[in-house]
Amino acid sequence: MISTKDQKFELDHYIGMKVKKARLDEGLKITDVARISGISQGMVSKIENAQVSTSLETLSRLCSALGLPISKLFNDFDRPEGGAQFTKSGKGLEVVRRGTEKGHTYQLLTYQRGGKKIFEPFLVSMDDLSEVFPTFSHPGEEFLHLLSGKLIYRHGNHLYEMEPGDSLTFDAEIPHGPETLLEAPIKLLSIIHYEDHA
After folding, report:
1. DSSP-derived 3-state class of residue 6
2. CA dihedral defined by 28, 30, 31, 33, rounded to 10 degrees?
3. Fold for domain 93-193?
4. Taking 60 as the threshold, does the pLDDT of residue 137 lie above it?
5. Angle at CA of residue 145, ends 118 and 150, nearest 5°
6. Every domain of the chain and the residues it spans
């Protein structure tokens, strides 16, 4: 747990870093900022180097001199660290599904770590115009977005002619799959969302 002293130290360093960056972005010297703000050069330098905790009034004058709204000064403070899962183009995990042996490739674009799967995004590539395709039926709701090519996609008894930019969302328990490829190669983004029964 971070102590109050640590938080104060962290805040002083954050303010110093932001103030210095704003000054350098404006092409100003410490002497310029001191003259415009009416704050001594020594104090400006100490604030930038986190050697002093400044009052809100001094900070407000400093921000005005730098053309930096005080509200914007704290934009990034306490921002969660984050840590998204990034998959480079062509680097998805290739998985075997029904249809893989028929000229289809399925790349899983993210890997669920631990616990229950919430969703699975696939990049599906198909390159054979004459093939007969398997139908799929699985739990969840599926979202399809056609990136390139043209095809007729079946969901239950309905057929949808899809062109690049078209999307389809449906109950994945109902049999579905490509009916006819009209223009190959086809690239299809498929996102399967699984219901949370917890």
Report:
1. helix
2. 70
3. Jelly Rolls (2.60.120)
4. yes
5. 145
6. 4-73, 93-193
| Owner of token pair 């103030």 | 19
Q: What is the mean pLDDT of residues 118-141?
A: 83
Burial (0-12, 13-18, 19+ Cβ within 10 Å), 24: exposed
What's the predicted TM-score (pTM) here?
0.55
- In 3D, which of 79, 34, 73 has the Cα closest to residue 56? 73
Q: Of the CATH numbers 3.20.20.30, 1.10.260.40, 3.40.630.30, 3.40.50.720, which one belongs to the domain with range 4-73?
A: 1.10.260.40
- The encoded tokens of residue 52 equal 């002093």
Which CA distances in Å does 155 have to 68, 151, 166, 192?
Answer: 55, 13, 15, 15
